[in-house]
Structure formats: C-alpha cells, structure tokens
Amino acid sequence: MLHHAIRRSRGARRVPVAAALLGVLFASAAATPATAAPVSLTLNYTCNFPLMDPQPLKLQITSDIPSSVPVGTSTPPFVISAKADVSAEAAYGLKALETATIAGTAVAGASITLPGDVRLPLQVPTTLTKTTVPATGGFQTTATGETPALQFSAPGSASIKVEGDLVLKLDARLADGAKTGLEDFETECFQNPGQNTTLATIVVGNDTQPPVAYGYTLKGVSALKTLTTGPVPLTGGIDAKLDLATGNYTADLVLNSTKANLKVLGTLPVKADIAFQQTDKTRGSLKAGVLTATAKFHVRLKQLYLFGVLPIAGDGQCRTKAASIANMKSTDAFFDPLKGGNLKGTYGISDLTGCGLLEAFISPLAKGGGNTIDINLTPKA
Amino acid sequence: MNRTFTTRIARLTAAALAGLALGPIGQASAAPVIDRSFPAPTPNAAPDPFYTPPAPLPAGEPGDIIRARPSKAGPPTARSLANAWQVMYLSTDALQRRNVVTGTVLVPKGKDPATTPVVAFNGGTSGPAFKCTISRFINSGAFYEQAMINRLLQAGYAVSVTDYEGYRQNPNTSYMVGKAMGPAVLDGVRAATRLPEAGLSPSAKVVIHGFSQGGGASMWAGQLQPTYAPEINLQGVSGGGVPANLASVAIGLNGKPGFGFMLYALIGLDNAYSDELQLGTYLNAAGTSTLAAMEAGDCTIELLLDYDGKQASDYMSPLPFGQLPWLLRIAENTLGSTKINVPVYQYHAPNDPIVEYDQARQLRDKYCGLGMSVTWKEFDTGHVTTVGRGNTDALAFIADRFSGKPATSNCGQ
C-alpha cells in the first residue's frame, strides 16, 4: 500500500489517498466507488423446523456498502454477514435427535431496485458457521455470503432489500460427526410481515462525487521555432479538478513571465520579456495513464530590448492577435497524478498586434506553427 | 315428454356422471363423489375441517377417495420433485367397522404416472395431537422423514403416505394397533391409484416401507394384504425398528426415557377398543390431565423428552397391560402369526432404547419359521438415528423389488 501525505491544493477538499489512488488506477468511465459504509438490518422470520410448531428466527444482517457510486460503476460482490438467533425450542428438537453440531447453508431472498424502479430479485447464498448445539437453551449461529457483482448504469437512487424468505439446508451431525436421523433436511423460514427490509440505499450519479483536486508546480521550456533563439525557460503552476467518473478535468494554468532572445532580421539581438496570458481554462483528460492538456493563451511580448537594453516595445500591448492553442500529452509510460510527470506539446502563434515599430518585423517571425512546449509537473507540497 | 322435462333429465344425468369418480373395473357400487371443495391446508396449529369425518360415511369400498385437495410435497426441493394431494379415503378400523383415514399422495414430476411404481411410506411416531398429523407436517415442510420421501421421489416412485386412523380435531388415533394400521396402509395405496389427478395405475408395483411405528404398520399391511387387498401388486415389505409385540415394547419403557411412547401406546389401544378397554377407569387425576394434554399438544419430541423419569404408577393403577381385555387385544395385534407372501427386509439396532431389540429379532425368527424370505440387517445407531441411517439399504431393497431381482433371504444365518 502506498503511503503519501494527503495533498491539499488551493481551495480543494481533502481527498482520501486510497480514493485518489483508485481514481488513478481506474480513471476511466468505470471508476470504482468511494468508501464503503457499514449498514445493518434486523429481521424476524418464522421457520418450519421438523417436528415442532413454527419457531422464531432472528437475523442481524451487516455489510459494507457504499452510500454513493458514480454512474457506470460496477461494484464487486458485497460480503453479507448475519447472526441468527435460534430458539430454545428448536434447539430442544435438535437435541432430541442427538444433534451435537449444526452447519449448512441459508439462501436469503433479496432484491436490488435500480434507478427507474427496476427491481431485480436476488438470491444471496450464505454459509453457516459450524456451531455446537448447547445442552439447554437457544443459540446463535453466524452466516456469511455475498451479493453478486452489480452494475449501476443509470443515475438515481438504488436500494438493496432483504425481502422474501430464507431456505435453510441444515447439516446436523451427531457427536461422532455422522448425520442425524433427519439426514439432509430443508427448513423454510418466512419473513414476518410489516418489517423494514432495506439493507442499503445507494445514490448513483455524476455529481455524487466531488472532483479531485490536483496542483503542480511546472518547469520546462518552450522553443518558439522561428521567433526565438534558444529555448524559452518556463515556470509556473497548474491547479486541476479531475472528475473521476469521466476522467476529464479543468485547470488553471499559470506560466510565469519569462525571457527570450529573439532573432530579428537575423542579426539584431533583441531580448524580450514574454508573458503567457491564459484566455480560457486548460482542459484535458487523464485516462488509462495518459494525460492530455489543451491550454489557450495569448503570448505577450511585454518589452523588447534592442541590443538587450533599449526598450522598444511600444505601449506594452504587443501580443498575439489570436490566442494560441497548445495541445500537450504526457510522455511517461503511466502518468500518476500523485507523482506528477512530463508533458510535451506544440502550439501555433498568430500574427502579433500592438507591437509598434517592430511589428512588421516581429510578427512574421512569430507567426507559425511547430512551437514546442516541454514541461515537467511536480506535485505541490 | 315436454322439452323442459327431457332437458332436466339430461342435465341431472350429466351432473351425476360428472360427479362420479373413476373406480376399479368391475366395482359393484358406484364410487363415491370426491369432494374437492375444501380450501387449502391450514397451519398445523389451526383447525382444518378437511380431517373431520363426514357423518354418515358415504357409500363406497375400502380405498375409495371421498375428499381430495392439492397440497405441498414439502420444502422447496420436495416441491420441485413432485406434485402432492391430501386425500380422505374409506378404510376399516380395528373392530372391522368402516372408517375414514387421511393421507398424502405424492407423484414425481416428469414421469409417466401410468408406469410409475408406488411406495407406501409409513411414518414413524408423529404423536397423538391433531397438529402432528403427518399430512399436515408434510404440507408445512416440517416432516421429519422428508429426506426419505425425497429419495423415493428422486428414484422415480410415487409415494402414498397414510396418516393412520384418527387424526382430526379431537383426535382418536389408534397408535400401534396393527388391525387398524394395516388397512390404513393398504387402503392408502388403493386411494393413491384411484386419485384421478395422480394418474397412477391400479396394477402399479407396490413396495411397503416404514420405520418404528411405520415398520410395524408395514409388516401389518404385508400380513393382511393377501386377504384384505389381494389385488394390490405387492412386491416387497421393508420395515425397521419394528414393534412387533406391543406389551414387550411398552412394558420395557416403563420408567425409562422413552416412557412417553408407552403412554401413547396405551392411548392408542384405548382409542381403538375404548368400550372394552376403558383406560379412563385406570387413571388418577394426574393421568387424566396428562393424557388429555398429550392428545391436545404432544408430538414426537415431547414424547421423547418430556416423560423421562416418569412411570405408569404416576398416572394409573393398576397397569392396564396386566388386565385380560388388554392382553387379548395386544395378542391380536402382535405381529408374526401369519405369512407375508413377498420378500421382507427387516432391520433393527441391538442398542435401540425405545423399541426393544429382542422382540424384533423374535419376529424375524417367526417369519423365517413361516418359510418367508427375510433379509435381516442390524445397525448400531439406536433408535432416532436409525430413522435416517437405515434409508440407503431400504432404498436398495425397494429398487431390487421393482426391478424384479430375486431377494436374498438370510433366514438360515
């Protein structure tokens, strides 16, 4: 089991590590559910044991079932445990037949009602723990079993009910382990009317789970193919909100202002202060370990320095006419949002505007595709 | 004749014909109408008028059905194996008077009933109270010998289960009285083959089987069959834990854990021959109230466990078994005086604490002395466990009789 400090990003809710890890491993449409919650239900039945008047049987049923799951989830079988209280009279009857131990199976009638009021009857087979019949009085035995795996493909409210009857196939044994005179016998137990039969209610839906927040610092380079000489260092950060159900996220990207050397007219050395101005949320997905990101930003040439020193940019409004769109993709074999990783992408630059005297020279240089971005994301502390 | 009159005649005739039950070919009188109007079986502790004999009894022959209704073959597995009906049929009591007896007929699903053999399954002691009626336990899924019934059904046999005489509101069961049990068993087989819903053939091969009281009932049916029901196609009789000699068995239980069975045997004899035996005259206050309570609410478990440490002198004086009228009727109801004409399988546990071993062994010896084919086997599992432990060998004996294999008597050994 991985042990990570629980990460916290600006304004984001604490997310249990296990859930986040699950979000990574199953970050596709079939994400597994959030934490299971303990549920319990007590039910009274009346059983037709051999040779006697109908006898009461009390079942205390417990399980761990999530209170909410995202749409499209398949849940594994839920383990159901039950404690059964067997009456003194029933025990007396077993004793009359020299019964020393009782084991066997119990099949419980149950149902799952899916969103849209679709009721599916279920049978939950359980195995009884071998129990010694006491010399006097009633006794308790335990049973464990599983529901089948369940598929929640529609949003809404689902419920698991234990309704209907119980059929016991009891394996009664003498002290020497041989079968009693009853051999194999079945006992039907009928559920007493008028009881609450709901074991668990599950809310199925897209908005049942808040998006998981991830935050990273960012470091890398961009090479502007025609405009700059040498790579442009990049620093900044990205704060994302990931929807586990769909694997999609939205993010706020911050690229800090940086410096670049431009080639103007092939020879004039011009240093530039470059800023990247986000025009929209960065969006992408994390699916099957592949992170994609589409960032939209204006490239702003805040200041240009001829010969590295003479400011010539005009009124500071020199920037791309149309926002650039950078399409990036993770390069690691499997992007783990808890660890961060590397992304690479390309983007185009449009005509520049507001760049003053040098516009005519710079704009054609700037314009074009094939600009690269190469960054590393490190989870924020 | 005018049109209205002829129409009326036609309608009456049609109704009468529709009401007639099918009966055996060559029957002198018309079989009685089967009353199918009773509602479904009720829970065991509730009243159920299905079991109350009609007064007067309708005309008809022993084995004719007078009431029938669908019932449950048992818990879920049994219900998946067979259809079942509860029936009331005409029979004969220990004083050779006409009576009615109830029972259950089970027919395995998925087989042609016309060629299905029949096993008359005779239950062990169920108890004196109405709620203990075997048919009622079968229907509510609480019959303690359901395992054997299921095995018979799985083997493809129809099963006829008599309740024995006297189970109804205010019961009057003739427990252990062979002269009543034998006819109840044989007429139960007849009834099974006369129930139209079952579709069984009157010439179906039949084997009779039971344990404890059921073992006794089986041997009685075997002994009486040649004279009482010669037309039954009997192939064999199987009985375990057989109480052949009531006095031996009952006296042996005085002051023992199984004393409850002795008290019930006294009740059973008295119910069969009450004018003569007058059990009430022997009872003290404790005896009167205890025996009344037994007929109101005791089944097998109570008989097994609630009378441990008790003895006859707690309830009555003198012990009826020593009185001549009782001795005569007990003698009349002791097995072994006439032959069973088909192979017999008899089994018993030497360590049986309820039905004494020696008297069962003596029955076997008597039968062998009569020249019968008897296969004898011993178990070491007492009484209640042998109820189940004996089933596999009994099933093998039954299967061999239906398949026509020659029996392997071990009388010489």
TrEMBL record, chain A:
Report domain DUF6801 positions.
44-200
Signal sequence bounds:
1-36
Keyword line: Signal
A Pfam family found in this protein is DUF6801
Q: What is this protein called?
A: DUF6801 domain-containing protein
TrEMBL record, chain B:
The signal peptide annotation in the UniProt record is 1-30
Origin: domain of life: Bacteria
Comp. bias (Pro residues): 40-59
- Alphabetized InterPro entries for the sequence: AB_hydrolase_fold, Lipase_secreted
Where are the stretches annotated Disordered?
39-77
Question: Could you tell me which SUPFAM superfamilies the record lists for this protein?
Answer: alpha/beta-Hydrolases
Assigned keywords, A-Z: Signal
State the Pfam families in the record.
LIP
**UniProt cross-references to PANTHER family, sorted A to Z:** LIPASE 5 (PTHR34853:SF1), PTHR34853
Entry protein name = Lipase family protein
